[in-house]
């Protein structure tokens, strides 16, 4: 018997509906970030690699390779001004010619000298206005790239007590976001990202999910929270946050990555794959609730990667990331929600935990291979990419490619 037939028998005997599992797995799309293809690193060093894209156009070409071998990465997030071009509709047509779309637009309000003490929360109104103008410029760019989403991350914060008025800055943050919100098309979304610290080390203006959630409530329905998995203090229960925000209809999407200590931006699924699995458990549990708000929220959520590939090869790092997400999603799809509910009803603590964990322990390789075969991509995307000559052909770009 082949490996998939065995898997099928094993799962069917547990009562798992493999048609649903397969169609959800087929539909999983993961957006990759343009900056993950460029040179990026830590605050100590950005190593220059040979073959790194020199332009936003070449970043898209690299992203197209990831989509080619996975079939799951059609859209690419861009960062302005890292991906600044004269003509954004040209960038969009380049993406389209490669079978891609431009995904979330990430405004950059943290690298300009003027923003040392804040951007939309700066005490000087001229600098606040400059930051707001950039946010608005990104809305114009989105119209040209046909993007619908904005990932908004602010480095704004202070390093010392008393450096700024926390309450005043809270007001300026809301006011700045309102200026942008007002000009959104009705089908556009603002995804507000929070982060506990770094680069600000005393207080960060949007430090946690509650602050991002509160802003989204004040702004309106087109504002939601973005959960970057690396942006929490150690020990935070990220899946609880995920579940809570979905239930409120305010979870807009994710920045996936892994961390050991803080915002390490390592390849997703390498450090704590169980956490990723449990995040998907909460998402699928909400989907199966059949409550309209929850189902709609989950269906519109964006799965995006946000990583910094400092020492690893960038395209393979991205392929590994996508495969790791697919693996944990596939495992979570094997949770028998009825079995969990039954155990919960009986107060069977260990039974409930077992019903969740055992899904994590199955080998989903035959399932993933079978899906890849069905959609017409290599069963082992990493192997296929490494066997191809794209990786060696880009070496001609030399060193000194795009960096953040
Ligand atoms: C920063 O820590 C955030 O994760 C942002 O999403 C940031 O814009 C992205 O990492 C690109 O630098
Ligand atoms: Zn992020
Ligand atoms: Zn981050």
From TrEMBL:
Stretches assigned to coiled coil: none
A Pfam match: AP_endonuc_2
GO MF term set: L-rhamnose isomerase activity; metal ion binding
Annotated Xylose isomerase-like TIM barrel domain residues: 86-265
Entry keyword Isomerase: yes
GO biological process: L-lyxose metabolic process; rhamnose catabolic process
Keyword flag Metal-binding: yes
EC id: 5.3.1.-, 5.3.1.14
Keywords, comma-separated and alphabetical: Isomerase, Manganese, Metal-binding
Protein name (Swiss-Prot/TrEMBL): Putative sugar isomerase
């Amino acid at each position: 018997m082949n490996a998939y037939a065995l898997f099928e028998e094993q799962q069917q005997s547990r009562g798992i509906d493999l048609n649903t599992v397969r169609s959800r797995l087929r539909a999983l799309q993961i957006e990759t970030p343009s900056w993950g293809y460029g040179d990026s690193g830590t605050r100590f060093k950005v190593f220059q690699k040979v073959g790194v894209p020199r332009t936003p156009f070449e970043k898209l070409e690299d992203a197209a390779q990831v989509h080619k071998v996975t079939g799951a990465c059609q859209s690419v997030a861009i960062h302005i001004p890292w991906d600044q071009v004269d003509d954004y509709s040209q960038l969009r047509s380049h993406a389209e010619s490669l079978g891609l779309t431009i995904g979330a637009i990430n405004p950059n309000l943290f690298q300009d000298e003027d923003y040392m003490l804040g951007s939309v929360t700066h005490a000087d109104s001229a600098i606040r206005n400059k930051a707001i103008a950039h946010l608005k410029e990104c809305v114009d760019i989105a119209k040209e790239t046909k993007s619908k989403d904005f990932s908004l991350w602010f480095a704004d914060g202070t390093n010392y007590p008393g450096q700024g008025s926390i309450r005043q800055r809270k007001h300026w943050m809301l006011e700045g976001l309102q200026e942008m919100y007002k000009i959104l098309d009705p089908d556009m979304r603002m995804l507000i990202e929070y982060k506990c610290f770094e680069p600000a080390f005393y207080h960060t203006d949007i430090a946690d999910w509650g602050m991002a959630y509160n802003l989204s409530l004040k702004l309106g329905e087109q504002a939601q929270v973005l959960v970057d998995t690396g942006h929490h203090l150690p020990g935070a229960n990220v899946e609880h946050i995920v579940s809570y925000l979905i239930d409120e209809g305010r979870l807009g999407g994710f920045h996936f990555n892994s961390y050991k200590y803080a915002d390490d931006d390592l390849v997703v699924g390498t450090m704590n794959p169980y956490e990723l699995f449990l995040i998907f458990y909460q998402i699928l549990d909400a989907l199966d609730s059949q409550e309209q708000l929850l189902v709609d929220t989950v269906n519109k959520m964006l799965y995006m990667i946000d990583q910094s590939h400092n020492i690893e090869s960038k395209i393979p790092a991205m392929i590994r990331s996508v495969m790791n997400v697919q693996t944990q999603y596939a495992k979570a799809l094997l949770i028998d929600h009825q079995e969990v509910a039954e155990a919960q009803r009986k107060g069977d603590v260990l039974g409930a935990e077992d019903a969740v964990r055992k899904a994590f322990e199955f080998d989903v390789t035959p399932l993933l291979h079978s899906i890849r075969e069905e959609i017409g991509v290599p069963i082992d995307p990493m192997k296929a990419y490494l066997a191809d000559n794209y990786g060696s052909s880009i070496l001609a770009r030399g060193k000194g490619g795009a960096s953040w």
